[in-house]
Amino acid sequence: QHKKKIQLTSIGLVFLLILALTFTIIGTKYTPTIELTQLQNNSNSQMMGYFIKCDNKNIVVDGGTKEDSNNLQQYIKDSGGTVDAWFITHPHKDHAGAIIDIIENTDIKIEHIYVSLNDIEWYKEYEPQRAEEAINLKNALENERVKDVVTEVELNQNIEIGKARCEILGIKNPEITTNAINNSSMIIKMYFERKTVLFLGDTGAESSEKLIKNESKKLESDIVQMAHHGQNGATEELYKLIKPKICLWPTPEWLWNNDKGKGEDTGNWKTKETRKWMEELNVKQNIIEKDGNQTIVI
To answer: DSSP string covering 184-250, please?
Structure first.
């Protein structure tokens, strides 16, 4: 009888344990898996491209040159073949070449394209040597299969994409005519459950100053994309306000090493200076384009 009582007590304890575990599982908040991939450059050019898989939604930021299109397409196809949201920071071909190719030469479905673009005449006046790149993007966005999904974003607009919230902290700056196209880069802050990511595009010194003035309380982020490929872009003051823990460098090897072709430090780029700023900010993790496609779970 004593043994029987012990056996029943054991069964009861097991039952209570199973019951408690069940309630724990039911009560646990579901956390989506966020995978952010910094895409490698597939030519000798600098480029910028990010693919973000957020639960069952796919987000692209820029995408790189035309030569980078196939690499990006593979990520899209492996994740269902649809891009739910595509952000283009500005029309330079090392950022917008891939989307132009994908619009014109593939059947990949794009649900939404978000841009912040000046009038073509503005590009012709203030950066005539690269105005054709803006014209090429504009023509692609007028393609029949995407023209109805293109949105010109507004400052401080919030865009919900599944479990992600994307806030637009910077848009075109037609009044800034120095380093004109870069300084009109769209700036996007993405809020995920565990991390925030700030995309700066090719933000320059002048747009950094405007961002600090207007959005200083929103700048602090866990992860930052280094502006203008990590050199001669955003200011040190801006990065100090961002306080990143992880830096995403869309930076090929020659630019990372300031190598003009005759070895390290033979160029005039400012990458080493920016690298020093990040060291002083105690950044522990640097994801660098030169190291190939890299995916981090955030």
So the answer is: T--EEEEE-SS-EEEE-TT--HHHHHHHHHHHGGG---SEEEPGGGGSSSS-HHHHHHH--SEEEE-
DSSP 8-state class, residue 41: P
pTM: 0.90
Asked if residues 63 and 72 have their Cβ atoms less than 8 Å apart, the reply is yes
Partners of 35 in beta bridges: 53, 297
Cβ within 8 Å of residue 41, ≥6 positions away? 47, 64, 65, 68, 252, 289
What is the phi/psi pair of residue 252, to 5°? -70, 170
**Encoded amino acid at 178, one letter:** T
Average pLDDT along the chain: 93
Over the Cα atoms of the chain, what is R_g? 23
Tokens of 111: 């649900």
Decide if pLDDT at 260 tops 90: yes
For residue 90 the two structure tokens come to 């500005």
